[in-house]
Structure formats: structure tokens, C-alpha cells
Amino acid sequence: MTKKKIASTIMPIVHSTHQQEDDSRIIFQQCIKPWMIINWFHKDYGIDANIEIQRALTDTSHQIATGKRFSMQLKSSDKSIFDKDTFTLSVDRDKITYWYRSVEPVMLAYVDLDKKAVYYLWIDETLIQNLHQKNTNWLAQETVSVQFSGRTFITNAELPIIEKYVLQWKRPLKTILTPGNYFKYSQEAKKIVNTLIDTIAKHDISFLKQDLGSLTNDSEKSIYTIAIVGPSRVGKSTLINSLLHKEISPVDVLPTTGIPISIFPFNENKTTILFKDSSQIQGGIGAAFLNEYTSQKGNPKNNKNVKYVSVNIINGMLEKGLSLCDVPGLDDPDPVIRGITKTAVYNVNAIVYVISVASYNDGEFSITKNIVEDLIELGGLMDKVFIVFNKTDKLTESQLVEVKVYINDKLNEYDILKYLPCEPIYISSQRSFDKRVKNENIEDSVQLLEKEIWAFLLTQNKTGLHKILSILSTSKGLIDKYKNIINTRLLDSKKRKDLDNKISYVKKELHSLNKLIKNVRYDVANRVKDYTQNSFANVLAHLLMDLGAIPLANSLPPKERITKFLEENAYKIITDVNTEFQQCIFEMQSEVNSWVAEKLNQVELALHNEDENVEIQTLEVTKYTNQIFSFFQERKEGYIGILESVIGIVASAIEILFSTIEILLTSPEKVRQNDIKTIHAKATKGYNKIQTEFLKSITGYLNSICRKVEQKALDRANVYLGELSKQIQSLEIPLTNHQIQNFESFLGDIKELSRNIESEANHLKDYTDSIEWSK
User: Fold this and answer.
1) DSSP, residue by residue, 190-239
2) 633 exposed, middle or buried (CB, 10 Å; 0-12, 13-18, 19+)?
3) Is the pLDDT of residue 719 over 70?
4) What is the pLDDT of residue 15?
5) From residue 308, how far is each of 311, 420, 498 by CA, in Å?
């Protein structure tokens, strides 16, 4: 077979005949000589061949096998589609995700049958990023257009480039979440829990009922729900449509009827309308269908007796285990609608509270009493409350600056900021929708909200997929407990004394947990303190060095510039320390769990449920950092009062610093060196005040979380050991043959279930380890 050169481009392809397929294979094989095609697959499993890279022995015709392989999917066409710089090929979305997850690199090769050229591209992170840039919701499509370059085709000169790629290739760390994954894993987790419940009931096992009840409750709440709430006509539906990259939630001139709309991830698009008489109908996910049942025009005063609307949608963001809930306005005059809204909101995990600023240019904007009461009430119930000020496109830039100062004043006045995971977010949901759906070249401000939501969800492992993984882990841990308790009951009575002694010994050992936690707490506190103090000292040293380097002939920087330098660095330090602190807390919980497990292993137990951690809440620290952020970013007249309302000592210290700087920098008679020393002294005093207040907040929170970690670990261990002790005491009463057979049958049943859980968890962890907000 003669080797032929290649020169052209590739593109979408359909195998029209067996001859075309054979021709394309021959052309490809000629191009990759001297590499070996290990296998041609005659059935289409998404891969056409496996190729092994080989190297020739010097001065011989023999080849050296490298063991490095890649897979290849072959497409071909005899049409004149290759005479361009770039061309596209339509490929099934599921094939792309399948290739991307492969254990070896996958090449998509496109053969120009006319010119006998083979164009190619790799199915890797670069391709996935390009697809995402073109359409962030590309996973909702059944087919995707991939783009080839007319300059990337296989020639002798190209073979070393391909070889290098294959030799250096590493499997992507990220895993693509395809439509239906969340639903599949959620259903599987529920099935596992139900199987465990049925198995326990079948064998009449009576212990650990409280643990089983808790697991059952968790399995029913495996999705993380965020409600979009706020007064009527503030743009809630437009925001939801923007988040979903699709017009789903009805947008009307009039308020909607007062029916909650819940939106869930699924492997197909459909809407279910549930009526009050328990009947239901299904339809599409477009706003046109929903308007018939949820808008004032289509369903005035809910004459159609709609109870609930559920929308299932193929969506990459929701696929990570999120659902959105579009609820009626909290200010609706109808008490029934307000009641429906409150009921819906009380059953979600977090809220995005939307407020419109559009009325500010008419002089009618205000943070009303109802808004304040809503935020205080909801803030005490939710994981987090994200405040979003919408319709910023209706204001000029100067108006937006003014309204931000007013909003910050009010949020501080009513102590709202302590409920927020981030500063208030300013968006135009309509402009983001136009950008995402209509492809208009404008700003996409909703990205700010998405980033903040995912920053919270991922640092706290809050997504639905993480919850499912936790359910699986809890199920496995509960099965291990059942196994150990029953095995204890089946022990020969001669071993009773030895086991009883071990349990007594371990119970005494558990008292030393307090000492362990004290040591860890001391280490964490010192680690945070040193990091904080060193970071502030470095900034002050940098300030002193910069000021000292300024020639005497030049003026010192203006007050605003020094102020900005100090503010920005202080906020960065606090943010970094808080992130480091959270990591320390998670490490402490893991260490405590491991310590308890090690002690329990002395009585041949297995307590390895490391996901059962204390909930991490950092309201006080978050409150402090948010105040700093508001103070730093909104550098306006009267800004001192914003900070003063929360931490007056720090505010006054900084106020003195700023006033001193102003005097110094406007006093030409002062000697430069004294100026620098005084500025540095005042900056140091201000920073020391910030450190003191911040570290005090950190210490208080650390003490609180350490008490919770210790108590939860001891409770878990003592309940477990107590159940074992009960079984040992029962050893005096011999088991009947029926009881022995029942226990042994139960152990056999849960052993198989345990293997299924481990397999499911391993697959799911591949997804949870790679979740990113933007993918």
C-alpha cells in the first residue's frame, strides 16, 4: 500500500455506503503509517479503531511497540465542504461526553474522500471549553457542531505532533455532567435506602431506628433548592430564564396567578401541571404553555384550580443537583397567595431575594418595612440569602452609585448583612437574558450571582450530587453498624468478657477526645493568628518601603491612594484568612472522625462515615468581612458610619488614620521622614484594631465549632457502643436456630447492598470531584 500525502480539510460526515467507509479507512491507514491499528470495530460503539504508536528500529523494518494508544472515530465526506479555513461537523452530544471520559485520548478524524486528506481534532478540555464559550447550555442539545481547522490534517510532518500529544496525554480531571445524571443517581440513592429499609423490616431488626429515620429523611431531600423571591414585578421570572438560558418562567405585564413553579433537572424537557383534585396534565417547557395555567391572563384568580407546577429540563447548571423555585410575590395582597409563597419558601435551602431599583430615577425607590421584615425572617431560616438588586439598566451610572450608598446604609441600619454570604449583587436580568438567549453583545451581569452561588455551594459541598454522595456514605456507615452489632450478638459467649473489657476501655479513652480537640483548637488558632498578623505586617512594611522610596522632590501619594491601598489589602487578608480558616475546620473534623474510628476499631468496629460532619456556618466572620467589603468598595462621603454601626472601634481607628493622613499630606512644613513615620504609625494602629476585632470573631466561632464537633463525635460513638453493650448483655440468653438463621440471612443481604453502594459512590465521586460553576 503506497503512502500518500495529505492536504486539505475535514468536516461533518455520514457513512452513506460500505464502500465509502472502506475507502475512508484505507486513506486513514495510509496516513498514520508506520503506526499499528490494533483493531477496527465493525459495530458502531462510538469508536472505530484503536491505534498504537510504534517506533522504527534503526536500519530495520521492525517496529518497537510503545504501549501508548489512542482511539479514533472516523467520519468522511466526498462533498466540497473542505475548501474553507474552518468547517463544522454535527456530532451526537452523548458521543462527545463518552469520548471525553475515555481512559485514552480520542481523535475525531474527518476524511476528505476527494483529496484523500484526513483532518482531525482531539476530544479534550480545549474542545469542551470551545463548546461552552459558544453555548453555555450545549449539553441540552442532542447534537453539537464541532469545528475543524483546514490547517490541521495528518501528514508525515504532523505525526510527531500527534505522537507527542498521545505520550503526554493525561485523563481530564473534570467529568462532564450529561442530562439525566442527577436524576439517575438520586433515584439510585432512594432505591438503596428503600432496599435497606425493606431488608431491615423483612428480618425484623429493631435497633438503630433513629439512625434509619434520619437517613430516610435525608434521602427525600437530596436536591438543593434555591427559591427566587421578592416583591411582585421585580424581574424574578426574567432572572430565572436568564439562569436557565431559556424562556421558561412566564414574564407578563401583570403578576402571575400565585402558583409556585419548581424547576428540576431531567433527561427530557416536560412540564407537569398538578390540579387541586390530584389530576394532572403534561406539556412542553415553553412559557406559552405555562402562561395558560400560571398567568393572570391565562388563569385569572386560578379559576383552573392549579395546585403546583413542576418543570423538568435538560440543563447543565441544574444537573449538578439544583432546583429553582419561582414563587409569587411576597407582597401580594391576596392572603392565600402570600400563604402559598411562605409555604414554598420554608421548604427550600437558600433564597435569592430580588429587589428592583428601576423606580429610583422616579424618586420612588426605598427599602421598605416589608422587605426588611422578609429578609430578617427568611435570613434566620435559610442556609444563605443572596440579595440581588435588579434592573440596573434603568439607571444611569451616577444614579447607581447613589442607590448603592443608600442600600448599604439601610442594610447596616437593620443588621441585614449578617445573613449574606456576599455583598449585595447588582444585575440586569433582562440584559443577561438578551446576551444568553439572543446572543446580543452586551454585559452578562447574572454571572456575578452564579459565581457567588457556586462559591458557597462548592466550598460547603452543598450541591445535590454532594448530598447524594453523603446519603450513600451514611447508608454504608449504617450497614457497617448493623453488621458489627449483629456479629456481636452472634459471638460465642466465651468471648463476652474480652469484648466487654474492650468496650469499657474505649469508653474511657473517648474522654481524651477533649484533649485532642483542645490541642487542635490551639494549633488552628495560632495558625490563623500568625497568618493574619504576618499578612498585615507585610502590607505595612510594603507601605513603609514604598513611601521611603519616593524622592523628596516628589509629593507623597494623595490620601485617597494610600487609603485605597490599605483598604484593598485589608479586605484581601481577611478573605484569605477566612478561606484558610474554613480549611482548618474541615481538617479538624476529619482528624476527629479518624481518631474516633481508630478507637472504635479496638472493639472490631468500623466507623468511617467521614461525611457526617458538623454544619459549617460562619455568620459572624462573614458579617465582618462584608462590612469591610462595603466600606472598601463604596468610598463615599459618610462611609465611616457604615462600618461604625458594626465595629465602632475599628472605624474610629481608621477615621483617625485618614484624618491624620489628610493633615500630614497637606502640611508642607513637616519633614518628610516624620510624615512617613506618622503615616506608618497610624496605619499600624488602624490595622491592629482590625486584627483584634477579626481574631476575636474567629476565636469565638472556633470555640463554638469545637464544642459541636466534640459533642457530635461522642454522641455518635456512645450510642454505638451502648447498642453493642446491650447485645453483649443479651449473650446470656441463647439465640434460637431461627434467630441465628435470620441474622445470618440479614448479613448476607446487606453485604450485597454494601457492594452496590460502594460501586455507586465511586462513580458519583467522579462527578462531584470535578464540579465547577461554569461548566
Assistant:
1) HHHHHHHHHHHHHTT--S-HHHHHHHHHHHTT-SEEEEEE-STTSSHHHH
2) middle
3) no
4) 40
5) 10, 30, 60
Residue identified by cell 473489657 is 501
Helical H segments across 84-232, by residue range: 93-100, 125-134, 159-168, 181-202, 209-219
| DSSP secondary structure code for residue 394 in this structure | G
280 closest CA partner among 249, 304, 302: 304
pLDDT tens string 532-585: 888 888 888 888 888 888 888 788 887 777 777 777 777 777 767 776 776 677
Alpha-carbon gap, residue 48 to 28, rounded angstroms: 11
Sign of the alpha-carbon dihedral angle for 291, 139, 229, 275:
positive
Task: Give CA–CA dist 387/239, Å, rounded.
Answer: 13
- Alpha-helix runs per DSSP H in 297-394: 335-345, 369-379
Residue 615 corresponds to which cell in the numbers above? 454544619
Amino acid, single-letter form, for residue 386? F
Task: Note the pTM of the prediction, 2 decimals.
Answer: 0.58
Sign of the C-alpha dihedral computed for residues 80, 82, 84 and 87 taken in this order: positive
C-alpha cell at 679: 503615616
Three cell numbers at 392?
A: 440596573
Residues β-bridged to residue 56: 63
Helix-helix angle 619-633:559-600, to 10 degrees? 160
